[in-house]
Amino acid sequence: MPGKTGFEMLKELTDYSFEIILITAYDQYGIQAIKFSAIDYLLKPVNIEELKAAVQKAENRVKGKMQNYELENLLQLIKNREQKSTHKLALPTLKETRFVNPREIIRCESSNAYTSFFFSSGEKIIVSRPIYEYEELLAAFDFIRCHQSHLVNKEHIKSWVKEDGGYLILDNGDEIPISRSKKENVTQALIHLK
């Protein structure tokens, strides 16, 4: 390498998200190769079979890391789901502050600076806060904004009627309009409906 050695270049890097196979004409760099966690250390002239074996080792290590990453991701999703199932949302009313499980909310409807929460039990709670304050909070619980005045829990969507401009029918029979500006968001959200 012109100007510096491969080891000097490696010392300058901050991200080691790759595997290293060292190929050199000098046999005194074995210890340094170990320090950099090299997959293999090959001397020139390179034996093709040794090179193929080293590349195969690198591929296996990358696949192993990907499997570990996928497992970590799955465990994180499970952990987040468990946390979501116990999470409570505070709804301040005139008389009290109610703590509710977001999964029990079917939908939210805005009326100026007020938001009405409709529950699977049939109960309705009115809060003197605008709907946009709840949109981001409830997005983590699979709520989608299908209209300027409506947030809907994806778990309670029964069907999407595409005529008359489009609307959603919920488990409780409510029909919720879909605005033109939100149609693409609703489409994307419902593609991933589980």
Unreliable runs: none
* CATH superfamily heading of the largest domain: LytTr DNA-binding domain
Number of domains: 2
Percent of residues in beta strands: 25-35%
- State the shape: elongated
Helical content (DSSP H or I, runs of 4+): 25-40%
How do the strands of the widest beta sheet line up side by side? 7-6-5-9-8
Short characterization:
This protein is of the alpha+beta class and 194 residues long. It has helices at 6-12, 30-35, 48-86, 132-139, 183-191, and strands at residues 21-24, 40-43, 89-92, 97-100, 105-111, 114-119, 124-127, 143-147, 150-153, 157-161, 167-170, 175-177.
Topology:
Layout: H1 6-12, E1 21-24, H2 30-35, E2 40-43, H3 48-86, E3 89-92, E4 97-100, E5 105-111, E6 114-119, E7 124-127, H4 132-139, E8 143-147, E9 150-153, E10 157-161, E11 167-170, E12 175-177, H5 183-191
Parallel strand pairs: 1-2
Antiparallel strand pairs: 3-4, 5-6, 5-9, 6-7, 8-9, 10-11, 11-12
Report on this structure.
The protein is of the alpha+beta class and 194 residues long. The protein has two domains: 6-84, no CATH class; 89-191, OB fold (Dihydrolipoamide Acetyltransferase, E2P). Helices cover 36% and strands 28% of the residues. The protein contains five helices and twelve strands. It has helices at 6-12, 30-35, 48-86, 132-139, 183-191; strands spanning 21-24, 40-43, 89-92, 97-100, 105-111, 114-119, 124-127, 143-147, 150-153, 157-161, 167-170, 175-177. A five-stranded antiparallel sheet has the order 7-6-5-9-8. A hairpin with a 4-residue loop joins strand 3 (89-92) and strand 4. The relative contact order is 0.08.
